[in-house]
Amino acid sequence: MELIQLLDYAGVAVFAATGALAASRKELDLIGFIFLAGVTGTGGGTLRDLVLGVPVFWVENHTYIIVCAVVAVLVFFAAPLVEYRYRLLLWLDAAGLAAYSVLGAAKGLEASGSAIVALVTGVLTATFGGVLRDVLAGEPSVLLRPEVYVTAALMGAGAFTVANVAGVEGAIAALIAVTAAFLVRGGALRFGWT
Amino acid sequence: MELIQLLDYAGVAVFAATGALAASRKELDLIGFIFLAGVTGTGGGTLRDLVLGVPVFWVENHTYIIVCAVVAVLVFFAAPLVEYRYRLLLWLDAAGLAAYSVLGAAKGLEASGSAIVALVTGVLTATFGGVLRDVLAGEPSVLLRPEVYVTAALMGAGAFTVANVAGVEGAIAALIAVTAAFLVRGGALRFGWT
Amino acid sequence: MELIQLLDYAGVAVFAATGALAASRKELDLIGFIFLAGVTGTGGGTLRDLVLGVPVFWVENHTYIIVCAVVAVLVFFAAPLVEYRYRLLLWLDAAGLAAYSVLGAAKGLEASGSAIVALVTGVLTATFGGVLRDVLAGEPSVLLRPEVYVTAALMGAGAFTVANVAGVEGAIAALIAVTAAFLVRGGALRFGWT
User: What are the chain B neighbours of A112 within 8 Å (beta carbons)?
Assistant: First the structure.
């Protein structure tokens, strides 16, 4: 499924960028940027693969690691510019959340066959990288922010799972669900939904 | 073994309740309650299953996830009442700690055959959910509290392992060990043992 | 490979000692010393084994757990003395970082065959125990300290991987790489490299 693979790289890249931005705010060195970008970009998917008992995605295919490192280097050199575009980055993060909630649900459904497990792995995949980023950077967890965040992830995972159980074709179900999650998170950013 | 299965659901439900209470103190929304209840209720057992290389319990049987969600919803609507009963909740937490220390040791002994590994998985299972809850809620780790906590978990895991190695029947060994752990943690709560 | 096994026990023991020292600064009881020593000593290697999908090292061989417990007891009774030798401990930590970065790279290379994955598992193994220690002890993450730390781990993992790919015999590659990592971290401690 082409779209799923694209979602995967997009999710990793976007979360890696938010990790690198956190490194920038903490004034870390280039290696610190790469470390935090890697942990944020791959953390959610790593936990998902571990609990599902499938091989960890970046051990199978190390392109994901290279994506994180390249994003970290780009953000390192563009940091002043990117911090000026913090609002843009929040929107990219919303795209990452949307992509990962659907990808996590798809992998969970495939590995376990349970819609309930799919909801959980969707939320885990979308949120755990950000949680790790915040803990490592010593900032309050994303969970405690007043804006809608976990709910948007649940929306994406839920929409995909329902569409899938209803027999909608995989790529179309993914497209609907990513859109749903992005609209919820985007609405929270745009209109301050809490 | 009926008792072990009961201990399992009881441990999940009670830890989930402490996670939901932490969500209540942080004034999270309903999804936040469910998220924190789920992480606290399943965190210790998830780490245990991962290190032992066995399938993660809630991926195998998603009833555990439903238990966490139901408990979170109940606490969400009963939150003012429950906060008034915080002392009761600490005692429920003691019961969860006791149940999980024994369950973790039993699973560790079964999977590895090593009494030392059983002690470690007993302590991990009983404490890791609470550690995750505190880190995510931005509160000081349970580890740093002056009261006896890890020691009670070690007591439960140790009593079960010793009784098991001595040939005591599983359910009876579990009953003795849960009681021992509960008495130690209960004594700490009642008499301020440090 | 004798040297690799030695590196392994040395890394566990030295990181366990830093965990016990953190417990000492937080004035925990003996069980708290053992808990924090165990988590710090085994945390990095546990994450490495989980992501590589190989059996967790201390479940396979519980000697590692005993090493952590013995180190914790020694530090508990020698705590005042050891705190006076904090500088020495930082150097021991540098030795642990060097040992673990190489060991992690060696295991990653063996399990995945990818040099890039080896770099990541080398850095993870060397740093994750310390990250857990800091999070659990409520101290700022090692990542945020200005001194060179992650870079030294990357140095060790990178030197081993390059030497290995270049066909250098395993024990010699390990010796070169441990020395490189130790010199970088030692230089940071001695000359304040940031």
Answer: 59, 62
Task: Give CA–CA dist C42/C8, Å, rounded.
Answer: 10
Which residues does B146 contact at the CB level (< 8 Å), separation at least 6?
B194
CA distance C113 to chain A (A): 10
Written as one letter, the residue type at C167 is G
And the tokens for A136?
């490592």
Q: How many CB atoms lie within 10 A of CB A63?
A: 13
Would you state the structure tokens that stand for residue C30, as one six-digit string? 């003996």
Gap from A15 CA to chain C (nearest CA, Å): 18
Task: Encode burial over B47-81: b for 16+ CB neighbours within 10 A, e otherwise.
Answer: bbbbbbbeebbbbeebebbebbbebbebbbeebee
Which residues on A lie below 8 Å from C151 (Cβ)?
29, 31
What one-character-per-residue DSSP string does B125-174 give?
Answer: HHHHHHHHHHHHTT---GGGSSSS-HHHHHHHHHHHHHHHHTT--HHHHH
Q: Please, are residues A120 and C115 in contact by the beta-carbon 8 Å criterion?
A: no
How far is Cα B1 from Cα B7, in angstroms, rounded to an integer? 10
pLDDT per residue as tens, chain A (194 positions): 577 788 889 889 999 998 998 888 888 889 989 999 999 999 999 999 999 999 999 999 999 999 999 999 999 998 777 666 567 677 878 888 999 999 999 999 999 999 999 999 999 999 998 888 888 887 777 777 666 788 999 999 999 999 998 999 888 999 999 999 999 999 888 887 77
- Taking only the tens place, the pLDDT of each residue in B36-59 is 999 999 999 999 999 999 999 999
The distance from CA B29 to its chain's CA centroid, rounded to whole angstroms, is 24
Percentage with pLDDT > 70 across chain C: 94
Residue C140 phi/psi, 5-degree rounding, is -60, 140
User: Is the CB of residue A134 less than 8 Å from the CB of residue A33?
Assistant: no
C62: pLDDT confidence band, cut at 50, 70 and 90? very high
Task: Tell me whether residues C138 and B135 touch, CB distance under 8 A.
Answer: no
Task: Inspect the interface and report whether the beta carbons of C136 and B140 lie closer than 8 Å.
Answer: no
Q: Strand (E) positions, chain C?
A: none
The whole-angstrom separation of Cα B85 and Cα B92 is 11
Q: What is the DSSP letter of B85?
A: T
Q: Using CA atoms, how far apart are residues A29 and B55, in angstroms rounded to an integer?
A: 39
CA A176 – CA A185 distance, rounded (Å): 14
What is each CA distance from A181 to A130, B36, C96, C132, in whole angstroms? 16, 20, 44, 32
Of the CA atoms within 13 Å of residue B145, those in its CB half-sphere come to 18
User: Which residues on C lie below 8 Å from A31 (Cβ)?
Assistant: 150-151, 154
- Cβ(B49)–Cβ(B56) under 8 Å? yes
